[in-house]
Every structure is written in C-alpha cells, then in structure tokens.
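Feature request, filed as a ticket because there's no other form

It would be nice if the structure record came with a short human-readable summary line next to the tokens. Right now we just get the raw output. Example of a typical job, pasted below so the devs can see what we mean:
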Amino acid sequence: MVAHAAGPKRLIDQEPYDSLAITTDGDLLTIDVFPMKRPVVRDKTRNAKFEVRKLDEPDAIYEVYWNKVEGWILFEDRVLKQANQYLIAKKYDEAYDFYAYLLRRYPKTKNLALSIKVFLYDSAGDAVASKRYDEALAILEELYQLDSAFVDPRSDRAAKDVLNRVVGIVVQGYVGKDDIVSAQKIIRHFVTSYGDGTFSDLTAEKNKLDARAAKLRDQAEAQMNDEKLTAAFETVQEMMRVWPDVERGREVATEVFRRYPRVRVGVSQLASTYDSSSIDNWSARRVGRLLERRLFEFQEAGSTGGTYVSAFGDYELAEDYRRVTIQLNRNAGGDGEQPVTGLDLSQRLRDMANVRSESYSPVWGSIMKSVSVEDVFRVHVDLRRPHVLPYAALQMPLTGVGIEGTALSAGPFVVANASENEVLHRKNDAYIVGNGNQPAEVVERVYTDRGLAVAALKKSEVDVLDRVWPATATALRREPGIVVQRYAHPTLHMLVPNYENVYLKRPSFRSALLYAIPRQAILDQLVLGKTEQPGCQVVTGPFPIGFGDDDPLSYGYNTTIAPRNYDPRTSVLLKKLTENELSVIYGRRDEKVPELEPLVLGHPPDQLIRLVCEAIVAQLKKVEIECTLKELPPGASTDPTGECDLVYLEVAMWEPVIDAERLLGGGRLITDTSQYLD
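Raw output as currently delivered:
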C-alpha cells in the first residue's frame, strides 16, 4: 500500500505564531511564541518584562525582559509578506486567499490597505490583458469605491483612467452584440452611482446611443407624417429600445402609440383553430377571443365559480336556479344591421339541445328543459334541474339558423396576414358590439425556444409573452421594466391513457405508472426550477385546487384525498399484478397474453413539456416499462393516428361544473368507457 505524503500546510492554515529575537548571554536567539497581545509596543521602563509561551512548550510560561528583545515578527506581517510575494508572481488566486484571511482576522495589519489596492489594480490589469473586460470592470469598480483617487505607485497611473477605458470597452462590446439592455444597465448604474460625465469614455458611448435614438425619433416622426403608421410604430419601438431617454423620445412614442396602438405578442404556438372556450387548446383559446365574440364569456373567478359577461345583453338567474332570463340589447346588430332577436336566440338554444342538430351540445342538452320569448328581445330558459352556472354552457357564437349573416359573432380583430412564424390581426371595422378602442393591430410571433422568447421581450422585440413557465417567471420578476402577472386560473397537466391498450385498460397498470413517476420531484426541479410558486402543486384529480381553502375555484376538488407518493417498488408489484390479471383473463379464452410493447407518449411541441416527458420515460425505464416519445402536431391535444398509448394533456379546467363533462362526458377527451363517467 502506497500513501502520498500531504503537502506542507499554507501559512494561513497553520496555528498563528509570532517570532522574537532575544539576546541571551551575548548570543542572538530567535524563538517562536504563541501570539502576543496586540498591539505589540516596546515598554522602555527599567526592568520591564512580559510573559510568553513558546510554541514547542505550550504549557510553560516564560518571562522576557524588554531590554533583551532585539525585534519581533508578527504572524500577520509574515502572512502579508507571503501574499505580496504571490502577487509579484501573479498567483492571484493564492494572493486573494491570503488577503481575505488578513481582512477577516487582522484587518489593522500595517500596509494591508495599500497591498489590497495594488492587488486589485494588478488583478484588473491581468483581466484586461486577457480581454476579460467584464471581470476587470467589476474589480476596478471595487478599487474605485475603496479609493477613487488611487494611483499605482509603480506606474504612476490613476486607477480611474483605467476604469474609464474599461467601462467604455464593456459598453461598446454589449452594443456591438446588440445587447442594449446590458449596456444601458451599466450606463445608468455608473451615472447614478458616480455622476454624469465622471467617466468620459462612458459618456461617449451614452452619447452614441442618444444620437442613434434621435435619428430613429426623427425617422418615426417622418413616417407618422406620411401616415406610415405601422412603420412608425416599429421605428419608435426601436428608438425606445436603444435609448428611451432621448430628447422628445417619449412624446413622439406616445403620439405614435395613440394614433396606431399596436401590440406584439410572443407565443410558443400559433393557433390553427379559434375557440375561446377550448379547454385543451391554449392557442385556440387565446386567439378565439380576438376573432370571435360569444353569447357568454368567462371574465374572472367569482364567489360561486366563474363570472360571465355578455356583449349582447344582460342576464339574470332565478333564485331557485331553475330559470335563466336573457335580455338582448336592441342595438346588438349595430347601425344599419338587423338586430338579433329573442326568436333568433331561442332557435339557437333549441338547436344546441337537439341531438340531431349540428349545433348540439351535450352539456346544454342535459340541462335545458324549454325556452320561451317575451317582448321580442327577452328570452326565458327553464332548466331541468337547478344549476348555478348555466350560462357557462352558453359560450357559443351567435351564428346559425335564424340569424342573418355572421357579423354578430365577429370579434374585434380579423386575420390580415399570416405566415409560418407570424400572424397579423388587424382591427375589425365590422365589429359591432365593442367601443372601438381596441388596438389597431395585434401581432403574434412564434418562439419555439422559450429562451429566445424571453430575450425578445428584454430587447423589446415583443411587448408581452402570452405565458412563461414558473421558473422563468421568478427570474423575470427581478428584471426592471418587466411586469409578470398570474392568470386567474391555472392549467392542469395530466397523462391521458389510450384505453385501446389492454394494459392501460387495467386500473392496476395505470396505478403502476402513477407510482413510477416522481411527480413532486419533476415539478420542483424541472417546472419550478427549485422555486416556490403559489398554486403549482401535485393534485389528485383533473380539477383545480385553487390558491387556498377559501378559493371558489376549488369547488370541484376533493381536498381530503392526498396525492400518491413516488413508490417504484409498489409500481413493480402492480405491474406484476397486471400481468397476472391478464394471464387469468386470456387463459379463460385460451388465448395468448399480448406482450407489453414499448409505450408511446405523445406530447405537444413545447420545450419544457418535452423535458418533463423525457424525465417520465427515464423513470418508467427504472421499473422496466419501456417508453418512447412522439411530438404531436401544433394545437393537437389527441393523437390523430392512434399510435400514442399516453398523451400529455394540458387542460384549462376553469369551470369544473361544465368542463368536467367536456373532459369526461360525451365527446370527451378521455375515452374511458367506465359507467362512472357516463
């Protein structure tokens, strides 16, 4: 057995000691002693003496006469000497450790302050020589804060001059990389901390940005005067990105925004369909409200569930919850348009309850009993049973039999232009139920990489991101000028099984999958990024839990059932139980039990969701369940090919009393044939 001898301890890792030079019988003797009382001052009194303990005889106390002491070396002086030697040798890491030790243990060491300033100056010089300008800037600013007038005693060069040069290089570098945000942060920090004009190179870079912004300001004014408002909007946005403090910049921007309000939205997917009430297609839900108005629309959470509004009139629910009265606006059709009447609406409601109609809604058909019209614009709907939110089932467009044309359901915008990566929604002049105050344009731009989306927001290439993941939200909340707001309701993430698979049809196998997936760990580490976010948690069923016990959103959730914990051993046992169950079933038929083929997990084209699914695949493999991934087409919540055994589904379950049937009932997303879901 060969052992490597440990290297000598660094001085700062040793027991502190001082050294004394003493004259004894005419000889000069040097002894090492335990640290003397600080400060060490020679006592010139006749026969003055002091006590010491030798390092090699710690239990013995000796008396030493001051008139015998020729000199001494303190431990801190020895450490400082070693630190300075490291500095001369350009061993900056080693020197740093020694200087840090002295600041912590012996801050009053003679010449320590000067040595540290020289250390900072030389460290910054080394960083500059290696073109590590950001590092050099941080070091030089620390030195400037210690001593703004420091001059290197060897070169007679002021540290301020070096800092001036380096800060100019750093800002210039960020501008060259088009990272204007970082450049502005440095400029504003230095101006705020040390005054405008203190550093000439920094002022020069600031003036360049100001001149660039002024040119854009003048260009925007010219475009605005020529009625090129879209171009003026883009130009003024660039001006605000480059240097928003340019003279008259904000006034010009305000005027452009007033004359041509335009919103640029960064999205992860463009919408292929439009449905503001969709529970499984986020893009369709987002765009649906822009392009189409519905009889009733979800507005916000209320004390008994969602609060709904109608652009076409008012509504009232009877005290016994068995009748809804809808009072239509007489001018709902707009100037020169045929208004929608109670007869039109009543026919639409009957069609929605008629199983033979193309407009049939299973949810509405199950609760509507009859409908009658009073005074042309007043409609009464009687219900089969009391219902607290019947209007939640009436989130439908006012088109169809009995209503002339489709203008009534037209939304505030129309699609003016669409490409693979961008859709332009322009103000709809035929929008008849609004006040005309909507923006002139809403532009959706696709960013499949969420990192690029965040970068675009910081660079003002977009005004808003439709949503970000929780970990990203935490980071963005710390960014100046960016506001992060939470949606009123959460989305639920779940795995939906394909019941055509004989294994997934067995409850025991589905439970095996559940126990095999560490949902809490995946949520904490991948989704939340080890941050805490209210409302982000593992749940036991497909209903929102809300943000507290008194949150009305949680009325569909059973809080008495705790989520099942990760338990791979139980998963293995349940998998074996499934195999035994199938063996019995197929044995009775005298048939061979189908082999468990690798599962196919379908997921939407989203970066983070794919990472979550990859983690699920890895965990299933640990319990010997093979699984592969398949990316679904944009906007698809089900697998049109039927190849997927599992589908990662994101659901906006905002109104459980209605959405439960849409998820689990007729035409449902979950296709289990269980009698309990019928």
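Something like this underneath would help us a lot:
The first helix runs from residue 75 to 88.
The two ends are 74 Å apart (CA to CA).
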